[in-house]
Amino acid sequence: MEQAEQERFRLKLLEEKQALGEKNDEADSATKPVELDQQSVGRLSRMDAMQGQAMALATRQRQQQRMRQLVAALRRIDEDDYGYCEDCGKPVNPRRLEIDPATLFCLECASARE
User: What secondary structure, in 3-state letters, does the chain show?
Assistant: First the structure.
């Protein structure tokens, strides 16, 4: 893969990483403990808040996983190992990288894994 193309993907990865970091900051408030005082919050409202908290926690875990993928892709760029399939070692189609610049596998190997 050409250096200019790698830099373009680096910028895409950094932009997504920045946006994801901002979303993580916003999600912090949604995962705070739920108030258990029944005088100020009714039972059903508290249950809704707890369900919302659980969903926010699951979302945050997915975001953290994606952040790890982005960091790993940036590391592969730095090590000049970006754009190659982790299984077969062949170049990953640039169109596939456009869709998900953090992908590890070519289409054939990804399909075989599913």
Answer: CCHHHHHHHHHHHHHHHHHHHHHHHHHCHHHCCCCCCCCCCCHHHHHHHHHHHHHHHHHHHHHHHHHHHHHHHHHHHHCCCCCECCCCCCECCHHHHHHCCCCCCCHHHHHHHC
**Interval 79-113: pLDDT, tens:** 999 999 999 999 999 999 999 999 999 999 999 99
Question: How far is it, in rounded angstroms, from Cα 85 to Cα 6?
Answer: 15
More confident residue, 32 or 87: 87
* Cβ neighbours around 23 below 10 Å, total: 14
Place of tokens 């640039």: 94
Show the CA angle centred on residue 27, arms to residues 21 and 28, nearest 5°.
95
Taking phi over 0 as left and psi of -120 to 50 as alpha, with beta for the rest, 100 belongs to beta
